[in-house]
């Protein structure tokens, strides 16, 4: 059995240490700084987290994150499993099925829909639990309630929905257009404020 010379071991350790330091510097510092700088120059709004401001210039949050509605005068996003959490519960889980049925009854009563007409995204959280998007169908199902509570016309609310519509990121994705409820509620707040000021 041949022995491994100490000098070779030291050289190998030194080469490994140099490689570790070099790649840590490149991949741990230079590359992230490059991406941050590139994003700030090329996509400044997205790089800042897609901040959402009201008409007075106040920061309302991020257009990428759902916000819990503060009453029936607002459009509802998808449910969250908790404070910004998703759920990994199986559809076969009895507790999950019960939760879905409770949501179905709540949405059916709130929006005056038959239980079978409640859209699926009103019943289950998205993968992240923070997705601000719902289908146009679910957004428009909420129009009569929001109109009653805000005094805005249904036509005006449908116009706000159309302005908050977004296409799927992947062409050909099923389900048609999506509505960003966070930007929709921000536009709704501005519309209500403008209406009150007139």
From TrEMBL:
Any Gene Ontology CC annotation: plasma membrane
Keywords: ATP-binding, Cell membrane, Hydrolase, Ion transport, Membrane, Nucleotide-binding, Potassium, Potassium transport, Transmembrane, Transmembrane helix, Transport
Keyword Protein biosynthesis in annotation: no
Protein name: Potassium-transporting ATPase KdpC subunit
Gene Ontology MF: a single term: ATP binding
Major location category of this protein: membrane
Region ranges (Disordered): 76-132
Domain of life: Bacteria
Gene, per the UniProt record: kdpC
UniProt biased composition (Basic and acidic residues): 94-114
Annotated organism of origin: Corynebacterium oculi
Topology in the lipid bilayer: Single-pass membrane protein
UniProt-listed Pfam families: KdpC (PF02669)
Coiled coil: none
Record InterPro entries: KdpC
């Amino acid at each position: 059995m041949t022995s491994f010379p100490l000098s070779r071991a030291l050289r190998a350790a030194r080469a490994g240490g140099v490689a570790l330091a070099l790649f840590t510097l490149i991949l741990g510092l230079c590359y992230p700084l490059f991406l941050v700088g590139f994003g700030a120059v090329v996509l400044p709004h997205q790089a800042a987290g897609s901040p959402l401001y009201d008409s007075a210039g106040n920061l309302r949050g991020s257009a990428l994150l759902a916000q819990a509605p503060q009453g029936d005068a607002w459009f509802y996003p998808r449910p969250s499993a908790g404070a910004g959490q998703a759920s990994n519960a199986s559809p076969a889980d009895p507790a999950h099925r019960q939760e879905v049925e409770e949501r179905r009854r709540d949405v059916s009563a709130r929006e005056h829909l038959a239980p079978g007409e409640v859209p699926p995204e009103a019943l289950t959280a998205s993968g992240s639990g923070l997705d601000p998007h719902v289908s146009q169908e679910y957004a428009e199902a909420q129009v009569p309630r929001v109109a009653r509570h805000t005094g805005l016309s249904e036509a005006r609310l449908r116009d706000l929905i159309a302005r908050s519509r977004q296409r799927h990121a992947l062409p050909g994705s099923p389900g048609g257009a999506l509505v960003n409820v966070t930007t929709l509620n921000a536009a709704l707040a501005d519309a209500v404020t403008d209406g009150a000021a007139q």
